[in-house]
Amino acid sequence: MVKEILRNELCEIMGTKYPIIQAGMGPFSTNQLAGVSANAGVLGIVSTSGFGYLRGDPAKMTKGVSQVARTLTDGQGGTWQEQLKRALHRVEESCREAKGIFGINVMVSSEVAEFAREVIRTTIELREEDPEMKDRLRVIITSAGDPLPMTDIIKPSGLKWFHVVPSVRHALRAERAGVDAVIASGQEGGGHVAWEPVHTIVLLPAIVRAVGIPVIGAGGFGTGASLVAALALGAVGVQMGTRFLATKESEFHPVHKDYIVKGNERDTIVARGVVGPLRWIKNEAALEFTRLTVRKAPGVYLGEPEDLADVAQEVRAQEDKGWDAQFRGDGPQALMPGGEVAGLVDDIPSVRVLVERTVKEAEDILRNLHRKYLTD
Ligand SMILES: Cc1cc2nc3c(=O)[nH]c(=O)nc-3n(C[C@H](O)[C@H](O)[C@H](O)COP(=O)(O)O)c2cc1C
């Protein structure tokens, strides 16, 4: 049976049927996506980066940003902490019947570290208040920053802790911080990528070799074949973003999904992003933004981390304009994160169909490889 073949230590750690994670993808909270993913047997992830908007002054928000802020809430008001708790409750309720397991993604980069701590504290508090929540919300995935300052708050909580890393050095630091697994995030991936570009095929085995904890692959995964490849490279599973974005249930705009389906493997480009370099779907806005990045934030291409305060106003303004257009679904003007795996995505299935066929493909490949190379 499929589930027996793929069932491994990552399934044990997460409490899921399959060793697959639906990646956190802001700025939407991906509540619905997380719930259906959890119910399909993978780890569903609620994204919390968008909750940062709820702290802002609504009067100063661009139209698009306030629209995102609204999608995170149920319209019942309250502080952002109360809204986050209610959002997590909705996910927990949606996966109670099918006993789905989910987690949250929290970006911990220095610019947002204080807010990240508060998100983590709120989540832990909620788990302590509600035993059902404790049972369903089992994993925290931190990313985009230093995990060490979060050890004191996450470790005693009982949450399983994964951290996203772009290099062996970062993986060793995460291991020192006490994480349960690292997610090796290669340059193919959609959304934030590393200052120094290293691709999954090298990064993943290098990290597997260096650390003594489980390693999960991210960046470029979207098929059963790539899941098998990750296992062959020593990983215990994969995290997929772009592939889950292009599903019926994901909260992203249909135009964004359409660009992913139509794009080929060369249709993404790296330019500046919110907290570092970011891989965008290549369109008019991304090309213009890349030119601007070359001129006004060249450090992105030279591997020099930039302070958020240093970024040229013109670049920030262009980025805000691009996000706004994304939320409106204005195709050519929208800045839309997406990974190279867009070249392998050619439909918008339901999450359940996607998961089942990915697992089936992986199983068939494993059987065929065994038959072809290991039997007489
Ligand atoms: C639209 C989009 C938004 C993303 N937002 C986040 C985020 O808020 N936090 C984070 O840790 N990673 C974010 N990522 C990265 C994903 O979590 C994941 O690591 C990445 O998509 C994996 O590469 P893939 O797209 O090739 O599957 C985002 C990716 C995409 C495509």
Task: Please list the strands of the largest sheet in the order they lie side by side.
Answer: 1-9-8-6-5-4-3-2
Give the CA-CA distance, first to last residue: 23 Å
What is the number of independent domains? 2
**Small molecules held by this entry:** flavin mononucleotide
Given as residue ranges, the uncertain stretches (5+ residues, pLDDT < 50) are none
The CATH superfamily of the largest domain turns out to be Aldolase class I
Report a brief summary of the structure.
The protein has helices at 2-6, 9-14, 31-39, 63-71, 80-94, 113-129, 131-136, 151-154, 168-177, 200-210, 224-232, 242-245, 254-262, 284-296, 299-302, 313-328, 351-374, and strands at residues 20-22, 44-47, 102-107, 137-143, 160-165, 181-185, 191-192, 215-218, 237-240, 268-273, 276-281. The chain is an alpha/beta fold and 376 residues long. The model has no long low-confidence stretch (mean pLDDT 93).
Task: Give a verbal description of the structure.
This protein is of the alpha/beta class and 376 residues long. It has two domains: 279 residues, Alpha-Beta Barrel (TIM Barrel); 66 residues, no CATH class. Helix content is 45%, strand content 14%. It contains 17 helices and eleven strands. Strands 1-9-8-6-5-4-3-2 form an eight-stranded parallel β-sheet. Strands 7-11-10 form a three-stranded antiparallel β-sheet. A hairpin with a 2-residue loop joins strand 10 and strand 11. The mean pLDDT is 93. The structure holds flavin mononucleotide (FMN). The site of flavin mononucleotide (FMN) has 31 residues, from strand 3, strand 7, strand 9 and helix 12. Flavin mononucleotide binds next to strand 3, strand 7, strand 9 and helix 12.
